[in-house]
């Protein structure tokens, strides 16, 4: 074992590892954190806060899926990067369907399928696509298709954090299924967390 044979070398390697780790952290960009408030308390949850545009090509979101369980779309809101293929699952013991009335999703209709099968759709345009099920009128979900992966969903208290944002100046926006909020101009620096709160309006 290295620490027995050469304790000094072991200590140096350990120190180098920690310095390297801190170095990597410093290169990881900045963070944006804040709170979204809404006219209806329950709509603070499942907002999407996102950077409108960061130059470059961003890879699709990995593992994007929407399940149908308990006659609900889960998750209720799914933010993804444009070009992502979403898997649609059915875990109920009944038939479900998924369609979108929205043009950004070509008004797709995946048909009706039994439990166990998976259907897919690739979202090629940015924007919001509502999801509906023609078997159950009460079912609704949303896919929010974004230009880049620097987004976060709010928790039940409206809090969000976006990590590892490349330094730069951007427009920060908020999406909510019912309300609107004003975009903000922000500047992100390496190693810093900035605060950006949103107040949604009717
Ligand atoms: Cu259904």
Helix-strand blueprint:
Blueprint: H1 2-5, H2 7-26, E1 30-37, E2 48-51, E3 65-68, E4 73-74, E5 77-81, E6 85-90, E7 96-99, E8 109-113, E9 118-122, E10 127-132, E11 140-146, E12 151-153, E13 159-165, E14 168-175, E15 184-188, E16 193-195, E17 198-199
Bound molecules: copper (II) ion.
Copper (II) ion binds at residues 68, 71, 96, 133, 135-136, 139.
**Main sheet attributes: strand count, strand direction, barrel closure:** 4 strands, mixed
Architecture (CATH level 2) name of the domain at 59-146? Sandwich
Q: Tell me the distance between the termini.
A: 66 Å
Counted beta strands: 17
- Strand residue percentage: 35-45%
* SSE order: HHEEEEEEEEEEEEEEEEE
Give start-end ranges of low-pLDDT stretches.
22-26
Radius of gyration: 21 Å
Structural class: mainly beta
- Please tally the helical runs, counting DSSP H or I stretches of 4 or more residues: 2
| Name of the top-level CATH class of the domain at 59-146 | Mainly Beta
The CATH topology of the domain at 59-146 corresponds to Immunoglobulin-like
Give the names of the bound compounds.
Answer: copper (II) ion
Quick one: CATH superfamily of the domain at 59-146?
A: Cupredoxins -  blue copper proteins
Mean pLDDT: 91
């Amino acid at each position: 074992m290295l620490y027995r044979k050469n304790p000094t070398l072991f200590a140096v390697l350990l120190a180098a590892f920690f310095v390297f780790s801190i170095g990597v952290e410093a290169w990881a960009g900045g963070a944006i954190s804040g709170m979204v408030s809404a006219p209806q308390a329950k709509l603070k949850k499942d907002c999407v806060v996102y950077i409108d545009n960061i130059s470059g090509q961003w890879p699709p979101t990995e593992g994007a899926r929407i399940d149908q369980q308990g006659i609900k779309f889960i998750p209720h809101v799914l933010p993804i990067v444009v070009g992502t293929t979403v898997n649609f699952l059915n875990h109920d013991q009944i038939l479900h369907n998924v369609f979108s009335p929205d043009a950004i999703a070509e008004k797709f209709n995946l048909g009706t399928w039994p439990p166990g099968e998976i259907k897919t759709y690739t979202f090629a345009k940015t924007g919001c696509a509502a999801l509906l099920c023609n078997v159950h009128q009460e079912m609704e979900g949303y896919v929010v298709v974004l230009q880049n992966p620097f987004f976060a969903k709010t928790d039940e208290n409206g809090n969000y954090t976006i990590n590892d944002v490349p330094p730069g100046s951007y427009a920060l926006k908020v999406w909510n299924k019912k309300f609107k909020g004003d975009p903000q101009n922000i500047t992100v620096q390496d190693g810093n967390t900035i605060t950006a709160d949103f107040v949604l309006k009717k």
